[in-house]
């Protein structure tokens, strides 16, 4: 979806047990909302397995990495670093500047030529993050200046970054897909043609491959 540019989400810090669900949801949200890759701390193996399993079943491309060297990843990243924090500049004030910095501006043809594509690292914390991260970040960004969650902050930031385009992304190598419908929970084999597919809920029963 991003051509030459990679959007990477870094989950900074993980407390096994306490953070398991949150870390998993950071990965699932990164995948669902247009990032290309997530990096978890190396003690978050269970979360990595869950996100990989979802990618295997519901499609990608999306990569999950476990790394020990969180500080070095941020320090050495060759691209733009966004740190999501309640203390940061308001997302609505800086989103355009971030898009320009990574070359996502002008993609709709209305702003002229897009800037050169650059990779983007989006960092979300768990417990307290080191001050060096605030200093290294090209942008410290607040999704409101109220305390909430890394999952919520990430979701809003990615949607703002991509201006909603991520909602229409196509998934590759999926085993299954959900049929969007007004009422119901239908999952079919990914390659399956379904009557009334463009008009969800009005076709024949698709003999679902899976229901949860
Ligand atoms: C539950 S908070 C913990 C914050 C921690 N007490 C601190 O002072 O850094 C976990 C993460 O959620 C994200 N977060 C929380 N509120 C946010 C906000 N308003 N805007 C952007 N990110 C936010 C940040 O990435 C933060 O590191």
Automatic annotation (TrEMBL):
Keywords on record: Cytoplasm, Methyltransferase, S-adenosyl-L-methionine, Transferase, tRNA processing
Coiled coil: none
Single GO MF annotation: tRNA (cytidine(56)-2'-O)-methyltransferase activity
GO BP terms in the entry: tRNA nucleoside ribose methylation
InterPro entries the UniProt entry points to: Alpha/beta_knot_MTases, tRNA_m1G_MTases_N, tRNA_mtfrase_aTrm56
Cell compartment(s), UniProt: Cytoplasm
Acidic residues bias spans: 190-202
Domain of life, per lineage: Archaea
Binding site for S-adenosyl-L-methionine: 84, 125-129
Keyword Magnesium: no
GO cellular component: cytoplasm
Region: Disordered, residue numbers: 182-212
Catalytic reaction(s) noted: cytidine(56) in tRNA + S-adenosyl-L-methionine = 2'-O-methylcytidine(56) in tRNA + S-adenosyl-L-homocysteine + H(+)
EC number: 2.1.1.206
Quaternary structure (record): Homodimer.
PANTHER family given in the database record: TRNA (CYTIDINE(56)-2'-O)-METHYLTRANSFERASE
Family: Belongs to the aTrm56 family.
Task of the protein: Specifically catalyzes the AdoMet-dependent 2'-O-ribose methylation of cytidine at position 56 in tRNAs.
Protein name listed in UniProt: tRNA (cytidine(56)-2'-O)-methyltransferase
Biological source species: Halorubrum saccharovorum
């Amino acid at each position: 979806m991003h051509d030459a540019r990679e959007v990477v989400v870094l989950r900074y810090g993980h407390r096994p047990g306490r953070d398991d669900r949150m870390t998993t949801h950071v990965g699932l949200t990164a995948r669902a909302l247009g990032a290309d890759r997530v990096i978890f701390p190396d003690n978050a193996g269970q979360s990595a397995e869950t996100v990989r399993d979802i990618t295997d079943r519901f499609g990608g491309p999306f990569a999950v990495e476990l790394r020990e060297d969180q500080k070095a990843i941020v320090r050495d990243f060759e691209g733009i670093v966004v740190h999501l924090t309640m203390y940061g500049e308001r997302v609505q004030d800086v989103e355009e500047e971030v898009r320009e910095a990574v070359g996502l501006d002008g993609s709709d043809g209305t702003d002229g030529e897009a800037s050169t594509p650059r990779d983007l690292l989006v960092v979300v914390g768990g417990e307290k993050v080191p001050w060096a991260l605030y200093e290294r970040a090209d942008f410290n960004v607040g999704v409101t200046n109220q305390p909430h969650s890394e999952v919520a902050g990430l979701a809003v930031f990615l949607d703002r970054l991509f201006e909603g385009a991520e909602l229409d992304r196509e998934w590759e190598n999926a085993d299954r897909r959900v049929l969007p419908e007004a009422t119901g929970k239908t999952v079919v084999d990914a390659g399956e043609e379904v009557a009334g597919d463009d008009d969800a809920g009005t076709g024949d029963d698709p003999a679902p491959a899976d229901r949860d």
